[in-house]
């Protein structure tokens, strides 16, 4: 059932690929602003890199949420989906599609941003890029899951664009802290598996609660 | 047990709840004002000044700061409990309670942040420090404001209630996570001063506990008043409200 729903999501999204590319472009452009604003010197950029890349990824995830929910809600297909299957599986399929089409591309693009932000400056053989990718692999699904709850809650609200951000950003803070601090620890040659484990724990907690909460919220928005 | 359940169900009736809160409110206000007067007397005049913290009188800020901070968290937990009751038993009055707590809780959070900041300037030499408790208190304020913003953006009140209830529950699961995450950079803030034995001189305890009690009661009084206003707002069309508005007593 979830697979069928997921296929549908992917098919709908494929027809709107520009909409999917915009958050990714946003991700790159926001990061490239920092050298202009702060300093193009490599040590400075390197110090900022984990935080800047993570904040940009977080904002790109928030921006891309809308298109997975809004049009389905407006044209009534969400209502049909909810009649067809359980709210949790509808939510789960949307979360999966959102991660596959935004989270995963962000992970793939992050090495490029690592280069722009001089993440390997001063290290001859460094795996900071891998660490960055790993934190995003563990962190972005949590962002999708929490974002789904916020988006489902605000579907029927009149002011929605910025409202989701206000609701969800406080909940994103723990993921941001551990995502960025893992990379920082790696840059400072410290052990980072503890932070990675916590990121993983957040993901597991979110997988347990968020699809259910998001499903209930979708039902409230439609019902 | 059966009696307890009956009472619980009766609280779900707007008219009953309005009537009962109307009876409680004068008593709650009276107790609040008495305790607040005594507490303020102790904390502003009768309490000793703290020598170790440099400027002795700043310690008096603590008597407002600590109760406000305690309330800011307890209010959110109360919101989440009421939200759960509302969603599980489909009790509309529980949603009215959630809505009534939110602004008072937000005000307490703001008060805790503000007094903390005013206290921090002379004591630590800074208005703001990104340490665990201050940061999570700030995020708590955002959670309150998020609930208020979400609730205000629906034209359909029952949808607003349910969506807000889910947000309150999601938020309460996140509060410990947020707290332990931001503890990462715990730098300046002192350890728990109330629960740790010996940390707080007994001379400071009397005014602090009096003020804690007073602020709790003040919170209860404010929430009850808001709740009564919510009940009237939500039941404008029912007959008893119209009769009440035209000046007659609410009879059961």
From TrEMBL, chain A:
It is a multi-pass membrane protein. The chain crosses the membrane at residues 17-38, 44-65, 95-117, 129-149, 161-184, 196-218. The keyword Protein biosynthesis does not apply. Its main location: membrane. Pfam families: CcmB. It is found in: Cell inner membrane. It comes from the Bacteria. Belongs to the CcmB/CycW/HelB family. Required for the export of heme to the periplasm for the biogenesis of c-type cytochromes. PANTHER family: CYTOCHROME C BIOGENESIS B-RELATED, HEME EXPORTER PROTEIN B. This is Heme exporter protein B. It comes from Kangiella taiwanensis. The gene is ccmB.
TrEMBL record, chain B:
It is found in: Cell inner membrane; Membrane. Keywords: Cell inner membrane, Cell membrane, Cytochrome c-type biogenesis, Membrane, Transmembrane, Transmembrane helix, Transport. The keyword Repeat does not apply. The keyword Cell inner membrane applies. It is a multi-pass membrane protein. The chain crosses the membrane at residues 24-44, 64-89, 96-118, 138-154, 166-186, 206-227. It comes from the Bacteria. InterPro entries: Cyt_c_assembly (IPR002541), Cyt_c_biogenesis_CcmC (IPR003557), Cyt_c_biogenesis_CcsA/CcmC (IPR045062). Signal peptide: none annotated. Residues 25-189 form the Cytochrome c assembly protein domain. Required for the export of heme to the periplasm for the biogenesis of c-type cytochromes. Belongs to the CcmC/CycZ/HelC family. This is Heme exporter protein C.
């Amino acid at each position: 059932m979830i697979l069928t729903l997921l296929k549908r999501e992917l098919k709908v999204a494929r027809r709107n690929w520009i909409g999917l590319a915009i958050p990714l472009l946003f991700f790159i452009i926001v990061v490239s602003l920092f050298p202009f604003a702060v300093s193009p010197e490599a040590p400075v950029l390197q110090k900022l890199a984990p935080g800047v890349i993570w904040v940009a990824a977080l904002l790109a995830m928030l921006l891309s949420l809308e298109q997975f929910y809004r049009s389905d809600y407006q044209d009534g297909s969400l209502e049909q989906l909810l009649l067809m299957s359980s709210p949790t599986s509808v939510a789960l399929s949307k979360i999966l599609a959102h991660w596959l089409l935004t989270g995963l591309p962000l992970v793939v693009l992050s090495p490029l941003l690592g280069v722009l932000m001089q993440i390997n400056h001063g290290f001859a053989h460094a795996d900071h890029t891998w660490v960055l990718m790993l934190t995003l692999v563990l962190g972005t699904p949590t962002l999708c899951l929490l974002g789904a709850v916020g988006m489902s809650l605000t579907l029927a609200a009149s002011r929605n664009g910025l409202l989701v951000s206000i609701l969800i950003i406080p909940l994103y803070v723990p993921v941001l802290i551990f995502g960025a601090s893992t990379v920082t620890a790696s840059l400072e040659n410290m052990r980072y598996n503890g932070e990675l484990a916590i990121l993983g724990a957040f993901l597991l907690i979110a997988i347990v609660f968020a699809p259910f909460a998001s499903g209930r919220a979708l039902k409230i928005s439609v019902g | 047990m059966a009696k307890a359940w009956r009472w619980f169900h009766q609280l779900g009736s707007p008219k009953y709840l309005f009537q009962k809160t109307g009876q409680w409110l004068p008593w709650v206000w009276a107790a609040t004002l008495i305790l607040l007067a005594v507490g303020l007397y102790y904390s502003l005049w009768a309490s000793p000044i703290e020598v170790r913290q440099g400027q002795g009188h700043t310690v008096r800020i603590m008597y407002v700061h600590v109760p406000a901070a305690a309330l800011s968290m307890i209010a959110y937990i109360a919101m989440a409990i009421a939200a759960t009751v509302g969603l599980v038993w489909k009790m509309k009055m529980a949603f009215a309670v959630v809505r009534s707590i939110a602004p008072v809780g937000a005000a307490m959070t703001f008060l805790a942040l503000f007094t903390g900041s005013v206290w921090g300037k002379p004591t630590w030499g800074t208005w703001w420090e990104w340490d665990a408790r201050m940061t999570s208190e700030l995020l708590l304020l955002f959670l309150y404001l998020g609930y208020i913003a979400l609730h205000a953006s629906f034209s359909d009140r029952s949808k607003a209630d349910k969506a807000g209830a889910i947000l309150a529950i999601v938020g309460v699961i996140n509060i410990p996570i947020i707290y332990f995450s931001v503890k990462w950079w715990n730098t300046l803030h002192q350890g728990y001063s109330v629960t740790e034995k010996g940390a707080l001189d007994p001379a400071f305890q009397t005014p602090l506990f009096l003020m804690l009690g007073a602020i709790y009661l003040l919170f209860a009084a404010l929430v009850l008043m808001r709740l009564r206003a919510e009940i009237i707002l939500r039941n404008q069309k029912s007959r008893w409200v119209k009769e009440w508005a035209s000046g007659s007593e609410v009879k059961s």
